[in-house]
Amino acid sequence: MAGILKVDKYQDFNGNDIMTSDGSGNLTLNNAAMKMTPAFEASLSANQTVGDSADVKVQFNTETFDTDNCYDNSTNYRFTPTVAGKYFVYVRIQCDSNAANNLQQGFAKIYKNGSRYSQTQMNMNGNFPENIMVECSNIIDMNGSSDYLEGYVNIDDTSGDGNVRGTTSYVWTCFGAYKIIGA
Fold first, then answer.
1. Domains in the chain, number
2. What global pTM score does this model have?
3. What does the pLDDT profile of the chain (183 residues) look like in tens digits?
4. Cystine design at 37: which of 67, 95, 107, 123 (Cβ 3.0–4.6 Å)?
5. In a domain, 107, yes or no
């Protein structure tokens, strides 16, 4: 025999709402421990020129979302979560050469507290294209007070400086993170 339970909220023994419903099937989790926040994603709104073979912080200046206002998209371009825990962090960077067949390699890097924490590299081994997409992701412990994360790039271009591609039309280059629940 099957049964149906109809409620608009679930509460703990002290009367605190754990989960609520708006009556249309949309649920809201009211317990912070059950949410994958703080979370954010930001992108680059215009191309950014970077020096040849130098680690450069990408200025991810356009927020797609920022649940807890923990990402600075105008000054430091960094994520400083206010809740301790493990975070899934990712950076995707479109590396462009100044001319066709000049891009030797590109790196996408995640920095924690001003130091390189993780990186990926795409080395073209003599078959130099004009652009490549490089992605890096990792799970990183954050203390919830002073730890911060930044996205960096390094482009090796035989013609000199490279570019990180950005636009407002769609997302080429992005940086984001979210707290992992249950970890």
1. 1
2. 0.84
3. 677 766 677 777 787 776 777 777 777 766 666 778 999 999 999 999 998 889 999 999 999 999 999 999 999 999 999 999 999 999 999 998 877 778 889 999 999 999 999 999 988 877 777 788 999 999 999 999 999 999 999 998 887 788 898 988 888 999 999 999 887
4. 67
5. yes
Task: Supply the CATH number for residue 149's domain.
Answer: 2.60.120.40
Domain-located, residue 22: no
Q: Which domain holds residue 49?
A: 36-179
The per-residue DSSP string of 54-89 comes to --EE----EEEEETTS-B-SSSS--B--SS-EEEEE
DSSP E strand boundaries for the chain: 9-11, 17-21, 27-29, 39-43, 48-50, 56-57, 62-66, 85-96, 103-112, 115-123, 131-142, 149-157, 162-164, 174-179
